């Protein structure tokens, strides 16, 4: 007796095998399933999504925070006492983690699109969990060490919001294919309704999001003011050691119209330039005066300070990865740098017909020049031969010493009301970019208050401040801003409104079309005859990509059974088997 089993036709599914194999180590067809995913696997999918969005946020933060990498390393230095570029391992680990999680996320979405059961491989589960925990610990650490930097996210949206909106709209529109495929199923559940409502809310929020944007560069190009002046913040510290003569020269060569420096007073009353409280990071004090490397720099006399080298540290540590681009002559010049005095810097600014902005650090109360710090600074300005009107002073105790610096152009480093500024005689403000909102800048400029924003090292930040009308910016990278002859993007309000409305309408049309197609597809499958589906599988044309599983014949003996001479002939070309009784053929 011969029993026939239905002829089965299997198509090669190389891509599906690749997706399920990489995601869940299910390389064989029999290992895959189109059943609903278990709650456990759905939970892991939620963890994967959470990791993806957290890493997306983390990667975007570090992308825009490049503007402040120098300040980040300095903050770490103040805590650890060792200068290292801590951004390199962070950027490397973020790139690897984000690439890995994004790849798994794409594979998971393909699973959903193909109707395959989610089954994340245990190795990937460990990887996802490790990546998530590492990112969370990184966020906590940055919040502890560099908590103020979160403000850059809101500032960056003034430049990136229109483009992020288009990207998010395209992504959510594409996801409508998966949402529609899940919602239009024959079975109905409360969870389907929740998914649909959530998707609609997200879509509507994206459609209306531009109403909340504040983008200075969405303006009439005729209203664009002149290019902001660039102030060399400690010179050009990415090209030469900060607060040295070669650094200030480099800043002027790259378009800086003013120089900014940190002023400290020596024990014998000579103002010199030093950012740190100690001399350890930027000089060889640990070799010349090893017992005094952690001593306050203001307690050294000028002769001792002048004997220190202020350039070797730059060549040895290469803090900005720029030393390899230096010529032999430049390296030799940098290697011979000494600590710069205030008089030297002011004379350079005067020769270049520029101005200077001084961040004066008052000496501690036990310092012998504590009561005469202002007179010592004034003496240095007069000795340099530069007009006091071209010198701006920023003292970090404005209420106690403001009256003693008359004659200089006075500036404050904090936001003040217009009335308070007039009362104190302040004519300009020096504000961190996170503290200067677009509306406040416009208010200050309308009242003839000059505003300088710091630190501005990236073209996108320079562009939005340019569009805001800021007259000057303080930068660690004048060589970068010099290459920005125009805002990186500028668009009229009418042009952006057209793009916004058009993109919303196109997205809405695509979403409606996808839902209608999925509904039509599902209704067609429900009305299809199952026997026709089986016959269509059998009669499908042969090709190189189709493997036919031959019909299995199960033999069993009945009573006397079948003789050994019985012959079976199989004709795969027509899908049928023929049985014959006879002897062996010759």
Q: How would you sum up the major sheet?
A: 8 strands, parallel, barrel
Helix content: 40-55%
Mean pLDDT: 85
- What is the general shape? elongated
Poorly predicted residue ranges: 529-586
Write the layout of secondary structure elements.
Blueprint (H helix, E strand, L loop, with lengths): L1 E3 L3 E4 L2 H11 L14 H26 L4 H12 L6 H28 L7 H24 L5 H33 L6 H19 L20 E5 L11 H9 L4 E8 L5 E3 L11 H4 L13 H5 L5 H6 L10 H8 L6 H10 L3 E6 L12 H12 L6 E5 L2 H4 L7 E4 L5 H7 L3 E5 L5 H9 L3 E5 L4 H10 L3 E4 L2 H4 L11 H34 L3 H10 L6 E4 L3 E3 L11 E5 L4 E5 L6
Parallel strand pairs: 3-4, 3-11, 4-6, 6-7, 7-8, 8-9, 9-10, 10-11
Antiparallel strand pairs: 1-13, 2-12, 4-5, 14-15
Helix pairs in contact: 1-4, 2-4, 2-5, 4-5, 6-7, 6-18, 6-20, 13-14
Subcellular location: Membrane
GO molecular function, one term: glycerophosphodiester phosphodiesterase activity
Main location: membrane
Walk me through the structure.
This protein has 586 residues and is an alpha/beta fold. Helices cover 49% and strands 12% of the residues. The chain is built from 21 helices and 15 strands. It has an eight-stranded parallel barrel with strand order 3-4-6-7-8-9-10-11, surrounded by four helices. Strand 7, helix 15 and strand 8 form a beta-alpha-beta unit. Helix 13 packs parallel to helix 14. The radius of gyration is 36 Å and the shape is elongated. The two termini are 26 Å apart. The C terminus is likely disordered. It holds the Pfam family GDPD. This is Glycerophosphodiester phosphodiesterase domain-containing protein 5 isoform X1. It is found in: Membrane. InterPro entries: GP_PDE_dom (IPR030395), PLC-like_Pdiesterase_TIM-brl (IPR017946). Keywords: Glycoprotein, Hydrolase, Membrane, Transmembrane, Transmembrane helix.
């Amino acid at each position: 007796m011969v029993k026939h089993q239905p002829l089965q036709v299997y198509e090669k599914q190389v891509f599906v095998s690749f997706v399920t194999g990489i995601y869940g180590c299910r390389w064989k067809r029999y290992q895959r399933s189109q059943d609903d995913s278990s709650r456990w696997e759905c939970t892991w999918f939620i963890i994967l999504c959470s990791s993806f969005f957290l890493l997306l946020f983390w990667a975007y933060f570090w992308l825009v925070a490049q503007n402040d990498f120098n300040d980040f390393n300095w903050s770490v230095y103040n805590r650890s006492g060792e200068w290292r570029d801590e951004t390199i391992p962070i950027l490397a680990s973020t790139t690897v983690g984000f690439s890995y999680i994004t790849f798994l996320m794409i594979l998971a979405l393909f699973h959903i699109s193909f109707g395959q059961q989610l089954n994340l491989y245990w190795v990937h589960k460990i990887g996802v969990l490790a990546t998530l925990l590492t990112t969370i610990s990184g966020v906590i650490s940055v919040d502890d060490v560099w908590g103020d930097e979160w403000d850059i996210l809101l500032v960056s949206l003034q430049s990136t919001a229109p483009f992020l909106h288009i990207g998010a709209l395209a992504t959510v529109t594409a996801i409508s294919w998966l949402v529609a495929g899940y919602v239009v199923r024959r079975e109905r559940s409360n969870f389907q309704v929740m998914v649909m409502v959530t998707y609609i809310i997200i879509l509507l929020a994206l459609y209306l999001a531009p109403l909340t944007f504040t983008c200075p560069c969405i303006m009439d190009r005729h209203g664009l003011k002149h290019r902001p002046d660039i102030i060399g913040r400690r010179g050009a510290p990415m090209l030469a050691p900060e607060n040295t003569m070669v650094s200030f020269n480099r800043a002027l060569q790259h378009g800086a119209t003013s120089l900014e420096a940190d002023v400290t007073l020596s024990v014998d009353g000579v103002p010199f330039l030093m950012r740190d409280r100690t001399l350890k990071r930027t000089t060889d004090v640990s070799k010349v005066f090893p017992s005094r490397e952690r001593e306050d720099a203001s307690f050294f006399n000028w002769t001792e300070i002048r004997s220190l080298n202020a350039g070797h540290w730059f060549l040895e540590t290469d803090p900005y990865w720029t030393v390899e681009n230096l010529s032999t002559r430049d390296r030799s010049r940098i290697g011979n740098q000494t600590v710069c005095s205030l008089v030297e810097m002011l004379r350079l600014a005067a020769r270049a017909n520029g101005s200077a902005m001084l961040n004066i650090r008052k000496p501690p109360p036990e310092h012998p020049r504590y009561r005469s710090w202002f007179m010592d600074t004034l003496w240095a300005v007069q000795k340099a031969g530069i007009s006091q009107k071209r010198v701006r002073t920023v003292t970090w105790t404005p209420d106690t010493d403001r009256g003693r610096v008359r004659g200089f152009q006075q500036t404050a480093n904090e936001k003040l009301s217009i009335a308070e500024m007039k009362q104190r005689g302040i004519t300009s403000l020096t504000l961190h970019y996170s503290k200067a909102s677009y509306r406040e800048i416009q208010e200050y400029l309308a009242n003839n208050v000059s505003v300088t924003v710091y630190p501005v090292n990236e073209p996108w930040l320079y562009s939005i401040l340019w569009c805001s009308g800021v007259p000057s910016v303080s930068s660690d990278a004048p060589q970068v801003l010099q290459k920005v002859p125009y805002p990186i993007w500028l668009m009229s309000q009418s042009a952006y409104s057209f793009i916004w409305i058009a993109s919303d309408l196109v997205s809405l049309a695509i979403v409606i079309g996808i839902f209608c197609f999925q509904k039509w597809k599902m209704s067609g499958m429900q009305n299809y005859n199952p026997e026709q589906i089986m016959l269509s599988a059998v009669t499908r044309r042969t090709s190189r990509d189709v493997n036919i599983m031959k019909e299995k014949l199960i033999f069993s003996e009945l009573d006397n059974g079948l003789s050994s001479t019985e012959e079976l002939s199989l004709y795969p070309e027509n899908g049928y088997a023929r049985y014959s009784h006879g002897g062996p053929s010759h």
